[in-house]
Amino acid sequence: MSADTSPPSPPGGPATTTDRRARWWTASWSLLRDRVGLLRLAAAERHVSALLVLVHLWTAAVPALTATGTGWLVTGLTGAATGRVTASEVTWPLASLSALLVADEILTSVGRALEQYTAGRVDARMRRRVRRLAVAPPTMAHLEDPAFADDAARASDVGEGRVRSPGTAAVGQLRLCFRFLGALGSAAVVALAFSPALAVVLLLVCLVNRALIRRWWVHLADVRDEREGMRRRAEYWSDVASTGPAAKEVRLFGLHDWVVRRRTRELLDWAETIWSTRREILRQQGWIALLAAVAAGSALLLPGWAAARGDLPAGDLMAVIVAAWNVFQIASMGREAFDIEYGLGAVRAMERLDAAHGGTGGPPGAGAVHRRAGAPAAAVERRGPAELSAEGLVFTYPAGRHRIVDGLDLTVRRGEVLALVGHNGAGKTTLIKLFAGLYLPTAGRLRVDGELLDEAGAAAWRARVAVVFQEFNRYPLSLADNIALSAPEHRHDEEGIRAAARRAGIDTLAERGPDGYDTVLSADRAGGTDLSGGQWQRVAIARAVFAVEHGRDLLVLDEPTAHLDVHAEADFYRRVVAEISGATVVLISHRLSTVRQADRIALLEAGRVTEQGTHRQLLDADGEYARLFRLQAARFTDTRHRTGERGAPR
Ligand SMILES: Nc1ncnc2c1ncn2[C@@H]1O[C@H](COP(=O)(O)OP(=O)(O)OP(=O)(O)O)[C@@H](O)[C@H]1O
């Protein structure tokens, strides 16, 4: 893949001087704002950053002190050599320089530890903010937006950022400020010991050199940011190659080499764009460094000539050379400069997330408090079985182009059991996500208990809904915790947990488990155990039952018997669905033997309800539902005949 590696030129033809000046001011202002933003990130960690400032103050003083001490030592040495001072007078500057070096060594180590600690805390805070933003919007649409995923990955520093992160950028910015202060101190030594003009020239040459180099590194950071999606894709394949859930298929199908090749190709595509930019940078940087070295080296000839003429004592000459050397250090981009450029991307990503997803717009690090829509309600107030009505409901996924729900009209009556059936992809799961308030309709109206469900009401409504999803979560927690997670404020209700487990048929699991309900459901925890697919599904059912018992007014079951054996499936309706009181139930299933017992059945085709009624009514209507039912019944009868069983379903 080829990549444009040069810094972007302004769009729209040659710019006028006024344009250029305006752009320069805008860029400088935004640079200053970003840098101050980084400092504020570090400053939010008050106590530790105060200590860090003290250490850095010392570090900033060291270059000027070293230059002065060296000059002092050389003065002593030359004096001793010519017999003008006693050799013992050399001891003081030597001892001072040694003490300086020892103190510097100790404080540098302390500074490094403080920086690591501060960076870790800043990173953790950024991750917390991203998590809050992820759960703040009332629906889930943002989670399917690639821009959100990229910015969230960038801001919370997952993956590569473990080396460079917002935290390392923040402490790097702090360190850089004091490096500049140190350079100013060294320039002051040059000015005092020899010439203010030379000090100013040295500083200017170094700053211009730095600005030129920085321009290229900023470009590299931009290239990285633009390619974040590529890196995320490559990381996905890394995870598939090395992590648990996909490992079974990868081994069984012998996919390992294919996955590694795929990952390598994606990674190389991404890396090539970065490397080509880096190569260009190194070429440009070589020229810039050479020019700067020539300019600064020539400037240093001046004190040399002055010393040769006898106008500058040897001690002062050494102080000037050491100080000038220290000033040179800021010409090059130190480690912190790369940390900063990288981390600025994270800070900007955070700002974009804040702006787009309900941030306060406050400064990064100010610890903006967001509404925690994803947080469980303290206690759900039972309002009685819910009634839902959809009128002309339309829904298109954020990343999709087609209407998945397409002008659907349907009422789910208070307290009834409504079954949704239909072919794969008909839109059943999508519809229940709308019913559960996880997405808002693209058009049409959805009412809950007669009230229009909008963004403002979605979170409150979700607190009244319990769902068993097709892809339910498997928490590596105890059996009791797995059940009570749907109403954690009732975790103490041990009898309720047991009752839910009995209804879902997993009470025997607790009896057999080594620690009863405290058995951890994870094979990689000491004393823990894993469950079969069907057992996990029963845990998910128990979780939903527990939620309904604690006040949820709508229970949604999406393929709740998909993993269950024949006996459990036959038992499911009687033990779970028929026992629900005080909640409306929406049940999705392809197993029409389960569905037929529902109060009403709605058939979905291409995002619309095409048939509805009781099982009997639908059979009498002899439409698509009747055809599907006969098809399943025929298979069932056929199997029974072959296995010698008697009877056929009605
Ligand atoms: N997050 C998504 N983004 C874009 N399209 C999606 C998304 N989720 C589902 N779809 C599309 O929506 C359509 C309906 O999917 P849905 O899961 O609602 O069907 P379903 O009726 O529940 O199917 P099944 O019986 O197989 O579970 C499918 O064509 C699918 O490709």
Task: Break the fold down into its secondary structure elements and pairings.
Elements: H1 17-43, H2 46-81, H3 88-135, H4 146-155, H5 166-193, H6 196-226, H7 228-242, H8 244-252, H9 256-308, H10 314-328, H11 335-356, E1 388-395, E2 405-412, E3 417-422, H12 428-435, E4 443-448, E5 451-452, H13 455-462, E6 465-468, H14 479-484, H15 494-504, H16 507-512, H17 533-549, E7 554-558, H18 566-577, E8 584-588, H19 592-595, E9 600-605, E10 608-613, H20 615-621, H21 624-643
Parallel strand pairs: 3-8, 3-9, 6-7, 7-8
Antiparallel strand pairs: 1-2, 1-4, 4-5, 9-10
Helix pairs in contact: 1-5, 1-11, 2-3, 2-5, 2-10, 3-5, 4-11, 5-6, 5-10, 5-11, 6-9, 6-11, 7-8, 7-9, 9-10, 15-17, 20-21
Bound molecules: adenosine-5'-triphosphate (ATP).
